[in-house]
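Deliverable D5.2: sample structural annotation.
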Amino acid sequence: MDTPPLSEIASPEIASHRGGAFIWPENSLLAIREALKWSAEQVELDVHASADGEPVVMHDATLDRTTDGQGPVVAQSWEALAQLRIRGTGGETIPHLSHAARLIQEGGQVLRLEVKADAQGRPYPGLVARCAAVVDQHGMRARTVFMSFEAASVAEAAALGGFAQTVWLAGGWTLRGMRPRDTVAMCRSCGATELGVPEGLADATLRDALRAEGLRLSVWGANHAPTLHRALRLGVDVIATDDPPLAIRLRASGVPAAQDPR
């Protein structure tokens, strides 16, 4: 199926991925504050669990890459983690989900929340419910998009209810060999209202199969002009990008890519 002209496609929402990781230190309060200055509709963050079950804003299961700490996030209490600093922020400490939710609530955007699994790919016990409780403290349940690669976590969030969307994330290792109807069935089985995939794996066939069943399609990894143009032309519902200013400019320009390889 041909992709329609960009002018005929509804504009997707833009999510600042990890707060805008190409420009600001990822998953930091600094990144959130800067992302909120732009007209992206959503701010995307990741959380792992501390040893005492608190939602810690962090992409990796370990501290080494982005902080001055070492070892697994889950090996330390929130009290200990709160003393660690994020590289590139000038000394800012690791955020709790509550800190991030408060900023996003005040900024008027949507919280796009990915709940991670541990280093072995196992969901953290109780983390989904704890995240729901934290966003509720800020009146943000209805303005929170819940996401996970773990179907069990998506199902738990769907059972809790009240989220703006529940998103099953599927990488290439998961989608390999799956037909569009299989992905639809998987979304239905875990209560997902949206499928999130890498930008390079999204196409019109998958989009149309989801739309026919009332489901949404989002992509991540659209971080440069060619990939952003492809996502815009495809007409996905949400683009999660590490460069939100670029995505916003291209969306506003309405200029299609010179050649769409699909």
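Annotation notes: The two ends are 9 Å apart (CA to CA). Residues 199 and 219 are 5 Å apart (CA to CA).
The annotation will be released with the project's public dataset once the embargo ends.
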